[in-house]
Amino acid sequence: MSGISGPEIFIQTVSVLKMDTELLFHGKTALNPCWNGSCYLKGTQMRLFSTFSSTIAQVPPQVVPKTLELQRKMLETDIALKRTLPMAEVNSILSFCRFMDAVRQGTPSVPTVAPGKHLEFYRETIERMVEADVLPAVVLDEFELIFSKPVLTLKPAMRAMA
């Protein structure tokens, strides 16, 4: 039987994705918009999560796990090299990437807090992979147990002075 194997399809998909994103971002890749150590574009700070989520949303579900692995490695390198990054977004993205690594390896994950918008996107991404039989449905339950929104903290009310 002739044809292209799974790994070859993956390599071709990643190569095409890399070429597309390089053209789209004029040399900056969608997975690492801070390639030169700064996250600024025309004087405005780029939103790392926005770039990350649009990239993940565009790749086929079968390629998402490898794309997340590459993203995790790039962010960890950026941190190690002390590149300027929006750390709240980095922590959220890294938490999701590490959760997916743990799921693939069958190891436990650490409970994580992430912004509501990020949680929506992560949930949709997992649902997309479950629908494509990339992940088992139980991963959605694991996600709900591990990830939560930040707790709203209220300041104590000032007591009226008598």
Structural account:
- The protein has helices at residues 6-24, 48-58, 64-80, 87-105, 116-131, 138-146, and strands at 40-41, 44-45, 112-113, 147-148.
- A two-stranded antiparallel sheet has the order 1-2.
- It has one domain.
- A hairpin with a 2-residue loop joins strand 1 and strand 2 (44-45).
- 56% of the residues lie in helices and 5% in strands.
- Helix 3 packs across helix 4 (87-105).
- It has 162 residues and is mainly α.
Question: Helices and strands in order, then pairings?
Answer:
Layout: H1 6-24, E1 40-41, E2 44-45, H2 48-58, H3 64-80, H4 87-105, E3 112-113, H5 116-131, H6 138-146, E4 147-148
Parallel strand pairs: 3-4
Antiparallel strand pairs: 1-2
Helix pairs in contact: 3-4
Describe the structure concisely.
The protein is mainly alpha-helical and 162 residues long. Helices cover 56% and strands 5% of the residues.
Radius of gyration: 19 Å
What class, by secondary structure content? mainly alpha
User: What is the mean pLDDT?
Assistant: 76
Oligomer: single chain
Quote the distance from N terminus to C terminus: 88 Å
Shape: globular
Quantity of strands, as a count: 4
Helix content: 55-70%
**SS strand fraction:** under 5%
Which strand order does the major sheet show?
1-2
Instruction: Compute the number of structural domains.
Output: 1
Taking pLDDT < 50 over at least 5 consecutive residues as the criterion, the unreliable ranges are 1-6, 16-45
Largest β-sheet summary? 2 strands, antiparallel
Query: How would you spell out the order of helices and strands?
Result: HEEHHHEHHE
Number of helices: 6
